[in-house]
Every structure is written in C-alpha cells, then in structure tokens.
C-alpha cells in the first residue's frame, strides 16, 4: 500500500487535490512500451522477469501497442533508418506520455559514433529519463522507472497544456 | 577430394585467357576474371557434373583506391557442398565504369548481396531486378564503405554536448 497524499481527513471523508491523486494513480500504473533493439533489451527482459519483476512497480502490463501505453522505453542502438519508426511510435502514444532512453546507445549513440547510427534518441523525440550503462543492469532500469514515477507524481495536471511543453514538442516538429 | 591444382587447371583450360592471377592464400583457391566472363564462369562451375560448385556463400565489394584503373573489386565466394570445396573469384572494375552483370539470374540469393554491394560501394549490377539501397537510409547520397572519406570531420556538429564534450 502506498501512503495517501497530503490532505485533510475527518470522519468519513478525505480531501486532497486532483494533481496529487491523479499523479499517484498514474505513477503506479505506467504501462511501458518496450522498444528493444539490442542488448539493453535483454536486460529489460530480465527486468520484466520474475527475479527483478518490473510488475512490482505497477508496470504489470508491457504494452506492445503504442495507443495503450504511457511510457516508451527505448533500449538499444537506434540506426538512422529506425529513427522514423521510433518517432512514429511516439506520435501514436496518447498524452500523458513519458520516454526513457535506456543505455548508452539510446542516450547518445554510445560506441557507435558512425554515419549510420542516430546519436541519441533525443534528436527525434523528447526524453524524460536517461539510464546510463552499456548495458545497464536491471536495478538501474528499475531506478529509471522510479524516476519516471516521481515525475508522474509531481507533474502538474496543466503541464501538458502549457506553453513550455508546446514549445518542447514544436522543437521536435511534433504537432 | 578436390584439389586446388585440379580445379585451377580445369578453369584455366575452359576459360583460357580470361582467368588469371591464380593464388591460394590460406589454401583457398583464388583467381581473377573479367566482367564479361564472370556469369558464364559461375554458371559453368554451378552446372559442372563433377565439381558442383553451386552455392554462393558471399558476394561483396572491395575498394582499392591506390590501384589505378582497377579501384573496385567484386568478390564472389562459391562453395561445393558435395566436396566441401571453396573458390574465390574476383573481378576488378575501374571507378569510371562500375558496371558488372548481375548474378541474380544464376543465384537468386545474389539479389540482396548485390543490393548491399551497391549500397556500400556504388557498384552497378546491370540487369538486377531492383537495385536500390538495402541497409542504409534511402536519402543517403554517398556510398559509405568507400575509402575516400576523412576518418572524422573536425567540424562535426552532431555530437557536441555541453556536459560531456566531444
């Protein structure tokens, strides 16, 4: 059980703000969309498995459909030819949506400093959390997920309508 | 058991004057032919009653920028599965005239290998059913495996990071 957010309670009622309740609910039911292209994807499979068990954090259902997922987890090298696919998947996701770049390749291109590899997915989609490592251990991926949970809990409900967020998307030629 | 000597003598006899530079690095029979003879040669080895060298293991290109007049090589590796015997055939092309007939009529598997060779070296396989890039993005306007690019462009802008530097 999670602790209730700050609020007022009395006999038979509990009052708090939507921001906190919705943030709490979102953060413990993040449906991840694993976009796994290489060895970081194998680490994610371990993260999904019984031993590390990402389900403990409310990510019970890895969603392989972008429309039903909240969190895009990009794990592995993204070649430039794959770039439009990642962007298309991101565009198909509904708001609110978060993105984790897992591993050195997704974060910066990693060792593949070459003509055919995208030098970090943040060149095509906005990224919320970067998980370093080559590949990162499952604990690190879980830590990245917990960072996303923290973002979801503290995010203002109006953020996605805000000027700043629109400018961020516009800088990626989205919308 | 086929020997390099035996096969080399047979090929030298059947394609006299059009096959040359026989060698056997690491015991792999290697020789050079011309682009006019490469398809008849592959067909001949494939259809040969005894040798049955009928499996195209690999087809790729090499760039030798220092060899004037034969800057590009197309290399065919063929294999006789019956005798476990391999042959490597090279064809040299000049950079002004990168045309060579397609092997995809003899070996359907050459289709994608030739597209890859075109993608990375720009070698044009005449008669190929669909000679377009296969691995790189379609918008790419150069052939990246050619040895004609500087190792790194010092003015590169795509990896500047205020935190981690270059």
Notable traits:
heterodimer; A: 175 residues; four-stranded parallel β-sheet; two-stranded antiparallel ribbon; 6 strands; 35% helix; 14% strand; globular; B: 166 residues; alpha/beta; five-stranded mixed β-sheet; 3 helices
In short:
By secondary structure, chain A is α/β, with parallel strands linked by helices. In chain A, 35% of the residues lie in helices and 14% in strands. Chain A has helices at 18-27, 39-48, 83-92, 103-108, 138-154, 163-171; strands at residues 8-10, 13-15, 32-36, 71-75, 98-102, 129-131.
Verbal overview:
The complex is a heterodimer of chains A (175) and B (166). With 175 residues, chain A is α/β, with parallel strands linked by helices. Helix content of chain A is 35%, strand content 14%. Chain A has six helices and six strands. In chain A, the strands form two sheets. In chain A, strands 3-4-5-6 form a four-stranded parallel sheet, sandwiched between helices. A two-stranded antiparallel sheet of chain A has the order 1-2. In chain A, helix 1 (18-27) packs antiparallel against helix 5 and helix 2 crosses helix 5 (138-154). Chain B is of the alpha/beta class and 166 residues long. Chain B has helices at 4-14, 38-47, 110-121, and strands spanning 19-23, 29-33, 55-63, 72-80, 85-93, 99-101, 124-126. Chain B has a five-stranded mixed sheet. The longest helix of chain B is centred in the last third of the chain and has 12 residues, at 110-121. The chains are: A alpha/beta (175), B alpha/beta (166). Chain A binds chain B through residues 80-81, 108-109, 113, 115-116, 119, 123, and chain B through 135-137, 144, 158-159, 161, 164.
């Amino acid at each position: 059980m999670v602790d209730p957010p700050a609020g007022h309670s009395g006999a038979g009622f509990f009052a708090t703000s939507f921001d906190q309740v919705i943030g709490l609910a979102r953060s413990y039911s993040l449906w991840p969309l694993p976009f796994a292209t290489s060895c970081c994807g194998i680490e994610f499979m371990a993260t999904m498995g019984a031993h590390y068990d990402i389900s403990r954090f409310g990510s019970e259902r890895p969603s392989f459909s972008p429309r039903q997922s909240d969190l895009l987890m990009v794990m592995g090298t993204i070649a430039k030819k794959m770039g439009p696919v990642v962007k298309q998947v991101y565009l198909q996701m509904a708001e609110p949506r978060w993105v984790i770049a897992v591993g050195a390749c997704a974060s910066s291109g990693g060792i593949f400093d070459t003509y055919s590899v995208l030098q970090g997915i943040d060149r095509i989609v906005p990224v919320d959390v970067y998980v370093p490592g080559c590949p990162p251990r499952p604990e690190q991926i879980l830590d990245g997920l917990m960072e996303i949970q923290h973002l979801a809990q503290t995010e203002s409900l109006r953020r996605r309508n805000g000027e700043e967020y629109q400018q961020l998307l516009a800088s990626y030629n989205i919308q | 058991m086929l020997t390099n000597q035996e096969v080399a003598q047979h090929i030298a006899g059947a394609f006299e004057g059009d096959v040359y530079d026989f060698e056997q690095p690491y015991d792999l029979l290697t020789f050079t032919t011309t682009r006019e003879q490469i398809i008849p040669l592959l067909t001949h080895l494939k259809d040969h009653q005894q040798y049955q060298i009928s499996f195209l293991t690999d087809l790729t290109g090499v760039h030798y920028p220092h060899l004037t007049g034969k800057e590009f090589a197309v290399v065919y590796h063929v294999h006789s599965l019956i005798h476990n015997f391999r042959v490597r055939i090279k064809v040299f092309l000049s950079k002004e005239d990168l045309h060579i007939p397609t092997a995809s009529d003899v070996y359907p598997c050459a289709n994608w290998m030739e597209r890859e060779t075109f993608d990375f070296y720009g070698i044009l396989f005449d008669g190929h059913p669909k000679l377009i890039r296969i691995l790189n993005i379609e918008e790419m306007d150069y052939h990246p495996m050619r040895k004609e690019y500087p190792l790194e462009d010092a003015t590169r802008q795509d990896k500047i990071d205020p935190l981690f530097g270059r």
